[in-house]
Design a protein that fits this description.
By secondary structure, this protein is α/β, with parallel strands linked by helices. The chain is built from 13 helices and 15 strands. The strands form four sheets. Strands 5-4-3-6-10 form a five-stranded mixed beta sheet. Strands 13-12-11-14-15 form a five-stranded mixed beta sheet, with helices on both faces. β11 (220-226) and β12 form a beta hairpin. The longest helix is centred in the C-terminal third of the chain and has 25 residues, at 307-331.
Amino acid sequence: MPRTAAPLLTSPIPRVADSDRRRTSASVVLRSVLEHGPVARSTIARLTGLSPASVTDYCARFAELGLIRESAVPRRSRGVGRPHLPVDLDDSRFVVGGVHVAVPYTTVALLDLRGRVVARREVKHGRTEPAEVLARAADGLRALLAGAPGSTALGVGFAAGGWVDRDSGTVVEHPLLGWREVPVREVLGGHTGLPVHVDGHARALVNAERLFGGARSSRSVLHLFAGNVVDAAFATHDEVHHGPRSQAGAIAHLPVPGGTESCDCGRVGCLQAELSERTLCRQAREAGVVDGVNPMHVVGAAAAGDPVAVRLLLERSRRVGRAVGLLLDVLNPERVVVTEIGIMYREDCLTALREEVEAGRAATVSPTSFPDSVLAVAGGSVALDVLYRDPLGASPEVI
């Protein structure tokens, strides 16, 4: 029998919109389990606006993949009928690796599906050549996984300061490390054999706050990171703004009125030069407070009652507060989260920062939700954000 062409409309090609819709639906279902679990499927349907049948289907697929499980204790409905079997995240099987490269050391960690740090270690830099730093990070991850039998890694998240291009998986430029055009995704993936996801640490921490921290219900969030590197990130309606080649959030060279610190760019008073932890430690050394380069030693001296250390931390927090005020005026976020060593450990520093912000908005500013694990969370959250945005595409079955 001769073959004839099938009618064009009998087998429609799946539309991009359909794929996007399925990805979004899967994401909101798993996010609902993360935020509300243990939670009944009927409650998920009510919270998300999806049909009960769709929720049941997604939950079945997540359970098959090992991402969720039924709660051991059923919940009775208010009416007559079978008890509900709530579902919850299964945080016993899978982890993600996290790598955060800072100026003095690399933090490697394992995080569970709730963003909690399961294990971590700091790997001090011998040299800062990218190949060596990334190889040692991979060795550190292997050691952590060897110490966590029964845990399966879904992937690795990498975060760093400077200019980090998420789409290409590249550290385009990190002046303090001397890195340029480093193909992190390719190199770290080659060492680990796992999918590697790459982003800047300020954007990574916005996602951590959005998923696991105090900004879950906020419609717009600004994050300011003030460490050795100073940068920012902004998220609105659950989307972090990256800009072309992920250059958004580069605020290191914003001018600070009255600034006196010389910057490597040749100017005076750039934001990073004024706020960097390097500047804090240099000032503390000059004042005889500490003799090293660890900002935690300044915090320790302040806790021991050293008035100069207290003054230095308060002055830095005030400068951070002025930067926050400027960014508030420009971006008008609902919530501001600041990662800065003073406000992470001292209430007087938080008060000093808020005093530099318009009185009606001071309460919207808060410290990071992860004061004891911020760098570990930054790395791991890059991978967890990918999982929660596309649970089926980033599923264990695919990996």
